[in-house]
Amino acid sequence: MSRDAQIKEFYKDQTIFLTGGTGFLGKILIEKLLRQCWDLNKIYVLVRPKKGKSPEDRFEELFQYACFDLIKCKNLSEKVFLISGDIQKPFLGLGVQDAELLKKETTCVIHAAANVKFDQTLKAASHNVRATRDVLELAKHMPNLKVFVHVSTAFSNCVHSHIEERFYTPPMKPENLLALVDDLDDHTLQAITPKLLGEYPNTYIYTKCITEDLVKTNLQVPKAIVRPAIVISTIEEPVPGWVDNVYGVIGIALVAALGILRSMHAKKSYPAHVVPVDYVANCVLAAAWKAHRSGTTAIYNYIGHNKNIMTWGRFVEIINPACWEFPSEKFLWYFRFKIRENELWHKICVFFLQTMVAYFIDFVLICVGRATIAVKNYRRLNNMMDLISYFSTRRWTFEQDNVLELWDQMGKDDKKMFKFSMEDTDWVEYIRNNILGARMYLLKETPDTIPRAKKKLKIMFFVHYAVVAFFWYLLYKFLMFVASSFYGNFY
Ligand SMILES: NC(=O)c1ccc[n+]([C@@H]2O[C@H](COP(=O)([O-])OP(=O)(O)OC[C@H]3O[C@@H](n4cnc5c(N)ncnc54)[C@H](OP(=O)(O)O)[C@@H]3O)[C@@H](O)[C@H]2O)c1
Predict the structure, then answer these.
(1) 442: which of 151, 210, 235, 277 lies 20 to 30 Å off by Cα?
(2) Is 68 found in the same domain as 8?
(3) Best of 25, 51, 123, 207 to mutate for ligand 1, by most ligand atoms within 8 A of CB?
(4) What residues are in contact with ligand 1 under a 6 Å CB criterion?
(5) Which residues of the chain fall below pLDDT 50?
(6) How many angstroms separate the CA atoms of 145 and 139, rounded?
(7) How far is ligand 1, taken at its centre, from the CA of residue 115, in Å?
(8) Residue 488 is part of which domain span?
(9) What pLDDT digit, counting tens, does each position of 280-319 carry?
(10) 51: left (phi > 0), else alpha (psi -120 to 50), else beta?
């Protein structure tokens, strides 16, 4: 093996215990390891039962995702193994045999599981802390463990405007938080949550911050904490534009493209720290190698490259023409998406362009005897946008010396195989691929449907402006009526 491919060499014969393997990042981590590092010994993937499906069924379904297409020819069952468990249960809900197996065999832990919802209760979010405590506890009994990687978030310390690659003092000690959620009833906990959160925007960020303290104070092996910013579709591997969820920024682009979302509250000149999921996976894998090599613990703010940052304004500037170029056939209305910097103006636009439309749609549905859906869904969308606006209306600066140093220390082959530098990222091409990918993997529309969708969009363009003209005409008539009544009475 070349000295330039040390990361690949590091994973040879490793047995990896991965939590969060069924998630967005986890799938790409598994795929990358299996495609690039087939010499590894095993990957144990923690899977819980969900939505009536057993861990066994979910584990089988995992490999049906398109991101595994390139490695379908390999006998995956030689390398990847299921561990049934649930991070919400004591000691990860592991069976005795599985726990013993993990303790005996694991050489590398990658802990990426988390409940990532922004609007969950503190009790639900506290499982992020409990799970990390239990994974660390398990790791303490792994005699062959070489390295522990924890996936955090770039915003875990977002109460600071400049974020360094170091541990910060958490708002509460992990053990105190866990004792609190155990002791208090749900009602009391809900009532005091805003006070506990203080400046922290939501329970997810709050618990991710506290979790870092656990990693700091536990386990005497080299550790790496990777803090990715907002994770979106793949940029290169296994295919550009692959995505499996509609959360956050991906969701924004999607519902905007479908003509559902028409306004976003953001500061156009502020950075939109979005990063591709495959580069995040590569950074995680490289960070593990570095931790082992150096024998030390390091934190990586993986937020892209400070010299090539995209802004929210640029993001929307790129999305708009891309949505014209690759429209979806499933659009509900003519696409028209704008950033509004002024919160009041944004709220007025949301009221007229989204809320009133939702009431109108539900009114029509009631008239034709169908169940209403629009108001409920728009309310959820508006709530999500409110939560996201915290991040799109604030500016953070991030130190990234450790990330740059990690990249510099990688050999030539490793840089090709585990690329994560975004210094030369072509944002236009990347965001265009995001739109194409969302079309393909989320909406299940193949590229041959684009010409038909374009025709439909043109028709919708005329419908949209006819409706707008009619609306202004009605408003004009109404104002004339009011004016004539007023002047009529006056004289
Ligand atoms: N996405 C982002 O923008 C972003 C940004 C910064 C940091 N991160 C971090 O990156 C990591 C991965 O996030 P992601 O984007 O891949 O999110 P995701 O798609 O929601 O994946 C979360 C993973 O955690 C697992 N998980 C959640 N609750 C669990 C439970 N009770 N028991 C077992 N597993 C459970 C999920 O399993 P199920 O499939 O069973 O739900 C899934 O595998 C997280 O630690 C997150 O905090 C994400």
Answers:
(1) 151
(2) yes
(3) 25
(4) 20-26, 46, 48, 50, 86-88, 112-116, 151, 153, 208, 228, 230-231, 245, 248
(5) none
(6) 7
(7) 6
(8) 457-491
(9) 999 999 999 999 999 999 999 999 999 999 999 999 999 8
(10) left
Helix residue ranges, H only, 63-185: 96-105, 122-140, 174-183
Q: Is residue 482 part of a domain?
A: yes
Predicted pLDDT of residue 334 = 83
Q: Is residue 30 part of a domain?
A: yes
Ligand 1 centroid–CA 361 distance in Å is: 34
How many A from CA of 123 to the centre of ligand 1?
17
| pLDDT given for residue 449 in this prediction | 95
- For residue 253, what pLDDT is reported? 86
359 in a domain, yes or no?
A: no
Separation of CA 128 and ligand 1 centre (Å): 10
CATH of the domain at 194: 3.40.50.720
153 CA to centre of ligand 1 in angstroms: 11
Cα separation, 391 vs 155, whole angstroms: 9
- Whether residues 475 and 413 fall in one domain: no
User: Percentage helix, strand, coil, to 5, in the chain?
Assistant: 55, 10, 35
Which of 83, 116, 132 should be mutated for ligand 1, with most atoms under 8 A from CB? 116
Give dist(CA 289, CA 461) in Å, integer.
Answer: 53
- Whether 407 and 463 map to the same domain: the answer is no
The CA 113 to ligand 1 mean position distance, Å, reads: 5
Number of domains comprising the chain: 2
Asked if the structure places residue 290 within a domain, the reply is yes
Task: Please tell me whether residues 406 and 488 are part of one structural domain.
Answer: no
Distance in angstroms between the alpha carbons of the first and the last residue of the chain: 96
Distance CA 417, CA 131 (A): 31
